[in-house]
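Supplementary Methods S3. Complex input for the zinc ion-bound model.
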Amino acid sequence: MLLQHIAEAAAWERARATGFYDRSTLGASIEQVGFLHASGDPDQTAGVLSAVYAGVTEPLVLLTLDAAVLYRSGLRVVMEPGDPQRPSGEWFPHVYGGSIPVAAVAEAVPVVRAAPGETVASTDAGPETDPAAQMMDQAHLARAIDLATVNASTDGGPFGAVVVTADGQVFQGTNRVTTTNDPTAHAEVTALREAGAGVGSFDLTGAVLYTSCEPCPMCLGAALWSRVSRVVFGADRRDAAAAGFDDAEFHGYFESPDRRGIMPVEQQPTGRATEPFTAWLANEARTGY
Ligand SMILES: [Zn+2]
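Predicted complex, serialized as structure tokens:
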């Protein structure tokens, strides 16, 4: 079963960087709404577009979701009336259970609105189909892969990363976990640290992170904190698992509640929990980030 969902292009861009799409309708989060609004066919999607998105001018992307992959990810699809007060009205598929893994999105195409109420799904997939941009991506990715291969043949893990800042400066990093006894010294973290130190800022807005392999959850987190605008990778978590790395298992930790057993995380009651934030908010010289 294939479902359709109308996403704001910016939200989809963020999802591609983080691995998860977390919006529902009109920018509201799945967490707020409780589920992801979807539709069951192009006609229903066209109806939603004219009824709900008529006044929205931001670029939109039509996502096609594979229900089978959603189920495998621990999510479930429920058919419900669009208006709970009117069960005789139009019914829609709603996806429950949390954010949508990008892997469950079978297709993403920009929505072109030719006229009010009329929709055409364009085959123009945006900047990735721009040959010059694609060549730059391929060149930087090749450099990350070269770094990884050399590192693997010498004293490090088989991972390399390149950060290209908004103004074109290039920084690189390799996996230094075993050589420095630093479990966080993944190639992406190393490259982001180099970039931050190099440009003299913790904010790498507009930068692109190229990495030889799909970022693990830690590196995705680092990419989010660094505010890079995009992440491009070569091999995926399955390739890493085949080489003996735990990336797939750790992604599973976040994607499936029954994997939490590998490392319980618990909140302990304490009356002092918010003291640091009180001190932070009281410090008028603080640097926000
Ligand atoms: Zn990592």
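The longest strand covers residues 105-115. The CA atoms of residues 4 and 42 lie 8 Å apart.
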